[in-house]
């Protein structure tokens, strides 16, 4: 990316951070350097001659440096310097050397502020470049699904726990197959690049198996074998303890109001009825996560539930249910969503993301993947 492009991207990142502040905070940040300069001038006019306003004039460019562009920081520094010069020229100060020292101090601080602004802009540009790469990786691994697949309205969200980490071990996928629309939401054990690699393997295996296998049970078997191969490739404890919790779902194209769900150690999905009712799709038999067949073996079995027209199926990772506020209270989607009606899956997911952000104060401890599909009212 060209240097000018990096700086323009960095300016967008700075504006985005400001947008996350409260309206009062944004106004205060914008006007604080000017208020400091005005405060310094007023202080010089009303305070006795033995007191100096140079701390006001020195603070203004330092405050502006991380908040403003280079041009506005330079204008703030010039205004502060002129304010100090005016105070030195028009104020009756008995010690002239002291006034010269104060002007020189403000000048040095102004130059430092310009240097700080430059460093901040370069840092923002690097951060923006990293985010661009992260976003490209997310689009490649977790592409945004079409708004409609197989006649169903679809929406997905991925929210990273860290602002600079756009992708991790949480995953989702949805595709139309000869057997109907099939979905997966999962959570790979661990963090970092190894978790991302495992997520890529699970998604790749799911897309192939969902197209070829006749049943969800067979799809789960393919995912199990793919994770076993990945485990043998790894070393140390990850060779034995790598696993993925996942929910597989299938909405058959030839069967009205049918939904099949296969849960492998994952938080159960929620089914939101068009009248505000809510049902937790708990599996009849609880199973271990994918990749743990060496610990225990059992035949997979999908549960079939009623999926009426207008209902929304919500699949999510534990970043939703384990989101805590300052007092340690978990976010409870069942209690929050029961009795509420949403016009579509997009509005539902936007509401969830906003509520979790408010609940945690923007400091979530885990990534969160959300996938929602809605059966149309008329079929």
What does this structure look like?
49% of the residues lie in helices and 17% in strands. The chain has helices at residues 3-19, 23-46, 54-64, 70-90, 96-141, 192-212, 216-233, 238-241, 318-321, 333-337, 345-360; strands at 148-149, 152-159, 170-177, 180-188, 244-251, 258-264, 270-272, 278-280, 303-306, 312-316, 368-374. It contains 11 helices and 11 strands. Helix 3 runs parallel beside helix 5 (96-141) and helix 4 (70-90) runs antiparallel to helix 5 (96-141). The two termini are 49 Å apart. It is an alpha+beta fold and 379 residues long. It is elongated and about 90 Å long. The strands form 2 sheets. It has a 6-stranded antiparallel β-sheet with strand order 1-2-11-10-7-8. Strands 3-4-5-6-9 form a 5-stranded antiparallel β-sheet, with helices on one face.
Task: Give the number of helices.
Answer: 11
Record field, number of beta strands: 11
Distance between the termini: 49 Å
Please mark out the parts with pLDDT under 50 across 5 or more consecutive residues, or reply none.
1-21
Query: How many whole angstroms does the radius of gyration measure?
Result: 29 Å
Main sheet record: 6 strands, antiparallel
Helical content class: 40-55%
Order of helices and strands: HHHHHEEEEHHHEEEEEEHHHE
Mean pLDDT: 81
Percent range for β-strand residues: 15-25%
Strand order in space, largest sheet: 1-2-11-10-7-8
Silhouette: elongated
Kindly name the structural category. Answer: alpha+beta
């Amino acid at each position: 990316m060209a240097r000018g492009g990096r700086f323009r991207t960095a300016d967008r990142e700075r504006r985005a951070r400001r947008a996350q502040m409260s309206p009062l905070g944004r106004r205060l940040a914008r006007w604080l350097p000017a208020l400091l300069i005005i405060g310094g001038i007023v202080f010089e006019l009303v305070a006795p001659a033995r007191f100096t306003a140079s701390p006001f004039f020195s603070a203004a460019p330092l405050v502006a440096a991380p908040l403003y562009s280079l041009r506005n920081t330079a204008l703030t520094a010039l205004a502060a310097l002129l304010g100090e010069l005016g105070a030195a020229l028009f104020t009756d100060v008995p010690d002239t050397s002291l006034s010269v020292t104060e002007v020189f101090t403000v000048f040095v601080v102004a130059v430092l502020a310009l240097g700080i602004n430059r460093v901040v802009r370069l840092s923002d540009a690097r951060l923006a470049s990293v985010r661009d790469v992260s976003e490209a990786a997310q689009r490649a691994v977790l592409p945004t699904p079409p708004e409609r697949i197989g006649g169903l309205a679809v929406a997905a969200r991925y929210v990273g726990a860290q602002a600079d980490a756009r992708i991790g071990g949480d995953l989702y996928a949805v595709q139309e197959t000869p057997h109907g629309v099939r979905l997966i939401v999962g959570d790979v054990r661990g963090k970092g690049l190894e978790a991302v690699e495992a997520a890529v393997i699970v998604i790749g295996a799911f897309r192939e198996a969902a197209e070829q296998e006749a049943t969800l049970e067979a799809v789960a078997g393919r995912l199990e074998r793919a994770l076993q191969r990945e485990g043998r490739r790894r070393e140390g404890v990850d060779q034995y303890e790598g696993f993925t919790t996942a929910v597989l779902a299938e909405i058959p194209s030839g069967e009205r109001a049918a939904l099949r769900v296969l849960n492998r150690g994952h938080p159960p999905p929620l089914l939101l009825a068009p009248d505000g009712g809510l049902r937790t799709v708990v599996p009849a038999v609880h199973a271990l996560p994918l990749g743990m067949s060496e610990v225990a073996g059992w035949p997979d079995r999908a549960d079939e539930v009623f999926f009426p027209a207008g209902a929304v199926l919500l699949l999510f990772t534990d970043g939703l249910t384990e989101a805590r506020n300052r007092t340690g209270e978990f976010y409870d989607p069942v209690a929050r969503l029961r009795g509420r009606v949403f016009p579509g899956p997009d509005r539902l997911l936007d509401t969830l993301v906003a509520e979790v952000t408010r609940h945690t104060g923007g400091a979530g401890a885990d990534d969160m993947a959300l996938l929602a599909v809605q059966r149309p009212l008329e079929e």
